[in-house]
Write a structure and sequence with these properties.
This protein is of the alpha+beta class and 180 residues long. Helices cover 29% and strands 26% of the residues. It has 5 helices and 10 strands, in the order βαβββαβββαββαβα. Strands 1, 2, 3, 4, 5 and 10 form a 6-stranded antiparallel beta sheet that branches. Strand 8 and strand 9 form a beta hairpin. The longest helix has 14 residues. Bound molecules: adenosine-5'-diphosphate and magnesium ion. Adenosine-5'-diphosphate binds next to strand 5 and strand 7.
């Protein structure tokens, strides 16, 4: 559904490493734009391939971030994100940082700091995760993370060496044509 201006900018961290991770991340953009009431998808980063956090005996991740403009309260937005995870075939087996078809984390909800049952915002892992901070910087360079300061400052601790940009559909064709 379409939101008519106003609302809050929320940022979503997206990750997948089972099935066809790239396809699931792209599908999540479609669903974020289409399945959440009172919400618009207003931007997204590129996709990045990235080694797993935690248990190493699992496939690489594909990660990205998206920006929403929403009139939903934060817990309803989280419900909507979890419904999209389920629609994309996510099964929760309780393993933290375990493999998954789709993980949607609510990174930021405007400038709010929230400690609710089942929801901490800003998301607790932001500062340590290059696959969150660097795509966020690409999408919203001037952003401030409540309680942590500027994104630009957070990004200084990462060199991005582990993040491999995934080619966009059509990119290879454009390059080949460019050469011809
Ligand atoms: P993780 O992403 O840490 O690997 P899950 O996606 O399974 O793990 O999430 C576990 C729980 O984390 C969810 O049930 C949710 O209630 C809670 N949670 C707390 N804060 C957030 C947040 N900002 N975004 C998403 N989930 C959150
Ligand atoms: Mg999660």
């Amino acid at each position: 559904m379409t939101a008519t201006g106003g609302g809050v900018h929320a940022y979503i961290g997206i990750g997948a490493n089972l099935g066809d991770p790239e396809a699931q991340v792209r599908e999540s953009f479609v669903r974020l734009a289409r399945d959440l009431p009172q919400t618009r998808l207003t931007g997204r980063s590129r996709l990045f391939r990235n080694p797993p956090m935690g248990p190493q005996d699992q496939p690489d991740y594909v990660n990205a971030v998206a920006r929403l403009q929403t009139h939903l309260p934060p817990l309803e937005l989280l419900d909507g994100l979890q419904a999209i995870e389920c629609a994309c075939g996510r099964e929760r087996d309780g393993t933290r940082w375990g493999p998954r078809r789709l993980d949607l984390d609510l990174l930021l909800f405007g400038d709010q700091q929230l400690e609710l049952p089942g929801l901490q915002v800003p998301h607790a892992g932001i500062a340590e995760r290059d696959f969150v901070v660097l795509p966020l910087l690409e999408l919203a360079p001037g952003l401030r993370v409540p309680g942590l300061g500027s994104l630009e400052q957070l990004a200084q601790r990462f060199d991005g060496a582990g993040l491999l940009p995934v080619m966009e559909p059509g990119e290879a064709v454009a390059t080949a044509e460019g050469r011809g």
